[in-house]
């Protein structure tokens, strides 16, 4: 009996020892597994790409019972109102605009075409790119999938080329031959000058300043063959007289190629005013383009008395060129990196630095938040001039949630109506340009070619509001918006946008491109308390106070790199 008890006790002790050892082994295994998991987690976090919260699309998903849009990230703090608040009645006017008007008449000392023109001097201009380049002078190529709307930015730029060509002809005492539009570039647009602009109007309106003919004349049975050359970028009057005039005297006909950014901002007041007479009075689109754009504007105004035109500029090619990062991970880096390789001489950029310096286009959602903070409610109607948005409808969704009355020319006109224009990039660009110009408020997402041209035009004609995001200041606000109330956010947005709303005199005379800030052609009315002085002598030249420096990055840099690529 005692023996059996001892055996039982021995087995119990043995079992206890074995159970303890097994428990210790399990504990050691769990400890080791936990340490291994923690190490893997740390490595994953260390090597994963950084999240740029500022540009992540954060859709505004629903409306609560109090009438506020709510952000899902912190719905107890950052609530976006549906309405524009107390400012909603003041967003459609420029407070000081009634005191200023466009003035581009020449002085009595400015020589007329009859006195200035030499009969055997002919100037021809070879434009590059589309309409935008040919009005000013830049050629641009785009990511094929964003082609449909990137043309707006490029194909309106020829307008400035034409303007500058008239001024160059006057400097050289030459007869200008109607410019030939580029028909061989990426756009393959076969349109000629007369299919976009009213040629007879152009020739007659500028006839007192520069003689213009349609084609080079013949000498006997021979057609004059022009001598082909080019001038440096931003060449001033003395530069033209030194480099081109001797050739013109000898050859009688000169064709200037690559005529983009080939005329300086540093010109006399009379020459700047000539620029304005050409740009704002002599260049008129053809009747079909004018009529179609008028219909588009009328259809929008049938729905709303006022409307905003928005140039989003969020196409893949622009984002790739900017070197910015929008939170799309490896997929975004691969897609935009592939496009970026098109620019052979483009240096690598630090996305965080570009963002801090305000050189990254805002996302559609961020543009929408800015507009709401400025007083635009969800009942505001928006016309969008933009191409294939990077990220498609998913990227546009937050903007459409903020502003459901959302249009483009494709949604307010039928395919049949757009058929005469849709195969021609320059004509489609002209439609968007005119609708944006007729809008009550124009909003650009960067200081690109189209934005600058429209800003200058809208300053000249009654200073209609033109909003450009102050991206450098807005960046930090947008990045930390969920750490503040809507009221705080909106107040700081309004403060940051002072000087970026298209008000008179907000751009210092002599700053920026002349086509954006035509101070030589803006006069102050005598009723102003500050004196009746025109501001025409403050921004142009007395041989040249208009600076071409101190500009934030814009499509100008993009354009110049495109030319090198070409």
Automatic annotation (TrEMBL):
Residues 532-566 are annotated as: Disordered. Residues 546-566 have a biased composition (Acidic residues). Keywords: Carbohydrate metabolism, Fucose metabolism, Glycosyltransferase, Membrane, Transferase, Transmembrane, Transmembrane helix. Pfam families: O-FucT. CDD domains: O-FucT_plant (cd11299). GO terms for molecular function: glycosyltransferase activity. GO terms for biological process: fucose metabolic process. The chain crosses the membrane at residues 29-48. InterPro entries: FucosylTrfase_pln, GDP-Fuc_O-FucTrfase. The keyword Aminoacyl-tRNA synthetase does not apply. It comes from the Eukaryota. Belongs to the glycosyltransferase GT106 family. This is O-fucosyltransferase family protein.
